[in-house]
Amino acid sequence: MLKIENLHVDVDGTPILKGIDLEVRAGEVHAIMGPNGSGKSTLANVLTGRDGYEVTQGKISYRDRDLFALSTEERAREGIFLAFQYPVEIPGVSNLYLLKAALNSKRKHLGLGELSAVEFLKLIKEKVKLVQMKEEFLHRSVNQGFSGGEKKRNEILQLAVLEPLLAILDETDSGLDIDALKIVAHGVNSLRDAERAIIVVTHYQRLLDYIVPDYVHVLANGRVVKSGDKELALELEKHGYTQLVQSSGEGAARSAGA
Amino acid sequence: MTDPVRQSYVDSHRSVAQRLPGSAQPWLRRVREAGLSRFNNVGFPTLRDEDWKYTDVRVIAKQPFLPVLDPGDGVDGERLRPLSFAGLESHRCVFVNGHYAPHLSALGTLADGIVVDNLATVLNQQPRELEGELGRSAPGELHGFAALNTAYLMDGAYVRLGRNCELELPIELIYVSTGTDDNRRVTYPRNLIIAESGSRAVIVERFVGLGQNRYLTSAITEVIAGPSAHIDYYKLQEESQRAYHVHGLYLEQARDSAVTTNNIALGAAIARTDIQVSLAAPGTCSKLNGLYIGTGKQHIDNHTQVDHRSPHCISDEFYKGVLDGRARAVFHGRVVVHQDAQHTDAQQQNKNLLLSPNAEVDTKPQLEIYADDVKCSHGATVGQLDPDAIFYLRSRALDESTARNLLTYAFANDVINRFALDPIRRAMEGRLVSKLLHGQQLEDLA
Amino acid sequence: MTSPANDLDRLVGREYKEGFVTEIDAETLPPGLNEDVVRAISEKKREPAFMLEWRLQAYRHWLTMREPRWAQVQYSPIDYQAISYYSAPKQTPGPKSLEEVDPKLLETYEKLGIPLEEQKALAGVAVDAVFDSVSVKTTFRNTLAEAGVIFCSISEALQEHPELVRRYLGSVVPQGDNFYAALNSAVFSDGSFVYIPKGVRCPMELSTYFRINAMNTGQFERTLIIADEGSYVSYLEGCTAPMRDENQLHAAVVELIALENAQIKYSTVQNWYPGDELGRGGIYNFVTKRGACRGHRSKISWTQVETGSAITWKYPSVLLEGDGSVGEFYSVALTNNRQQADTGTKMIHIGKNTASTIISKGISAGHGQNTYRGLVKVLSGSDNARNYSQCDSLLLGDRCGAHTFPYVEVKNPTARVEHEATTSKISDDQLFYCRQRGLSEEDAVSMIVNGFCKEVFRELPMEFAVEAQKLLDVSLEGAVG
Predict the structure, then answer these.
(1) Which end of chain A is more exposed for a tag (fewer CB within 10 A), N or C?
(2) Which residues of C touch A79 (CB under 8 A)?
(3) Which chains touch A (3 or more CB pairs under 8 A)?
(4) Residue A223: which domain range?
(5) pLDDT of chain A, 258 residues: tens digit per residue
(6) 3-class SS at B202?
(7) pTM of the full structure
(8) Are C102 and C89 in contact (CB under 8 A)?
(9) What is the number of structural domains in chain B?
(10) Considering B281, B310, B338, which residue would you say is the last residue of a domain?
């Protein structure tokens, strides 16, 4: 589904990613871990086409197409979804409105008809239950005045409604208490199936207790320094990143998940 | 139709022009003549001028005030003693009725590269030094008072901080006015402060009235802050209760300079301060703090203008006023973000507390924005003490007047806390208590 | 990826679909203004004698006045002698049945989406259609009459209810109030008149649709709405004009009077021709709108969506005279290309326990200049006055301007006045977030702008809220991506 080859990315002229290789197949859940500043969020932003990230080398193919040829919204319509680390507030625009506009723009792109108001509401009501949100949330402005946990749940609601093929969760666990974390994880897990791939970007192992990954990659200094299965995450929990980061200067390890 | 008062200022200028310091200098004569002709054209402002629509100066304009040509001799050190701020050590420069008073001043030792002197001396002895700098940061279109100051400029402070010079102690500039019994005197303090690149200083300007005479102070202070200069500036206005006070503070800030102006208005019957800040180069930061407290029939007008002419500049303005009795306050805060001054961050707040039924406030915050990538906001409020808060305090056993005083104090303290200079902050707390709270001791409360 | 700048240019290239001209025989006074013109207008309308006297007073006063120059707008001087002060389609005067109205006029309104046949009309909305200087048709008059509501053109009102007009005309905006109001008082030709009797809740939305058609003609309409004790009315006006290279003057006066416990809700969707992208042509919209909350607990609410006109100079205001009266002002003003708007409100607190709310949303794009100018004044007898003002500006592009000039004057210590203003642009984060959810940049901007205006749109009657949103989208078309 997603194939990243030798990806180098600069931000403001400073190299942040220095040769990433990663392959993600449908049905797989990959966790990308690493200390602060290792480039995890950069990777998520590059995958979704955010401005300000200059790809200096390498390529990414998504479903056998050159990802860089697609604009941010085209990627979204083609099934790439980013659950933001810091969801953005949009005053005056209701959650419901954004969801409907997003879903219909995707359906239109895929040649499906727009959902009628009744069909749409029915769908939403189902999804809202999944993340245990009150329906009144739908009528509030997007993320405005939401608590940290509410914002993250709202991201998962959007994820559930838009049913992407490739979901990227950027530090979705940060700022969540354990109950909210379980709700979020439950939402994500219910979307796991053979067609869908998920990339979980996280600093801590905690979320991986609830969303169990097939593969774990450790990112440090802009490179994947180690890959393994879920045991690697537990190991990191015990020993921390320090050792791995120190050895990362000696060249990037190949991704075992590829 | 000639206005006889306007004419009398022009006429009296003719008769004194030769006696003004540096009068032989052609460049200085041009500066003064330009000021005089400006005054002759515009006269004193009227309510029809948008910038003066809430401040009526007819009472000043109806009779001519006469310049004080010679330093008076009636002020001795004893009379000044009560004015000292506890704990404030400074390089002190005192002017009496517009003229330098060496016997009252204590300049102390100044490091190399630092000049603190009086303007008249410099204009007489090294007049070329100020050519092109005096009047440089003043706006092109002076109002009548500023024009008169320029026409009559005689004396004031001259401060120059050389490159990378840092002053440990503040420079304290005190302008003492006594007026005369005829109640017809005007002084024109003119001050020039030049901070060269990387220099750093605290400047305290104080306008003080002694006695009960009516007089007019028409002052201008120009501040030129060079690249990376840091200036912490205080103005404390405590003119006599019958005096008129008009002061223009004009600031020009070069790249990466940081200037804080703290403007405190307590005295005078009519007080008007214009602060104009030009952020002419990237990376500059300007903070404007203000506190005005009006009682009796005082009229206090603060007019600020911040011009963001360059990208990546920050301005933060915070003015608060407390009005009691029949006092009236005017706040006009204009922020202009010029085209291409992108990444401007300009914030402004003006809050007013009305304590009596006859007090009045007119506030006019203005944002004028011609660039798009900006973060600008302003807010203005007028209100009274929160009855819920008073009730709360009373339920905690405070009597009503103590509760009101405490809340008033808390309101003003918000600005006072922004003053970095400790002795000034403490002195202001004292002033607040004596002026507003009828001397009630709050130490054990606050 | 498309750059915002390019999209901006694309959006600016919008079309003004109301810009057509109706070819119709008209009776037009030659350009110029003097007492004879004032007399001629009054005579054409067969007005009572007091009205002519009133107009002449206004005219004489106008001669002594100067055009105001304090607004943040720039335009070349207006030659008041080059304007024609009266133009009306040739037809039989007086109230008429639909069959008597020129089919070309019916067609014009049809094209503008305002059908004048009652069976085709929007449910629950009565329309007064004003074409240049005259009212051509008022719908649903009979339905309204049953409720005792008078809704007709002001010319008719002068014939049929002269005592009402005489009593209230100029009682809120005096003849000499300002330069444009004086001009209007001298030469106004038509406009709407509404009277809601005591205790009546007007059964329908009332609306007036103003259309300027003739060339070199000024439109000077005059609207007078009186809500008697305990009554309620919601009124809406819409405005359009053909595209022409010359500027045309529109100087209207609207007066509202709310008596005890009465409520007037006045909404405007202003879409006069804004001129082209280089600033050629467009309407000069110099309007005086003011309401008096004369009775205790009365309420006047202004809602305006201003997307048209080359220049807008307009400050719908409320005099809060009655104790406990309430004034509201909700405004969206959009300036694109070379449009300039200087608009806002005055809330004058006179009675006790009065409250006012001001919500203003300014959007500037292209070279547009958008100014909020407002006055909140609390007089000394107005105990416990409350005001809350929020003025937000949104900038789209780096050659436009947004200005906020509030004036707050408080002479009573029990007042609580709060003013807040912010200026910002759409953040890159917001745009990226929406695009990551699959929205195009243009849709994202439109959505964010509409969200920005939501507090105002929700004050509009339902049908018009939808209309206003569309109008905003069209006006912004090309302005952003």
Answers:
(1) C
(2) none
(3) C
(4) 2-254
(5) 999 999 999 998 999 999 999 999 999 999 999 888 888 889 999 999 888 899 999 999 999 999 999 988 899 999 999 999 888 888 888 888 888 888 988 898 999 988 888 888 899 988 998 888 888 888 888 888 888 888 999 999 999 999 999 999 999 888 788 888 898 899 899 999 999 999 999 888 888 989 999 999 999 889 998 899 888 888 887 887 777 666 554 444 433 333
(6) strand
(7) 0.84
(8) yes
(9) 2
(10) B281
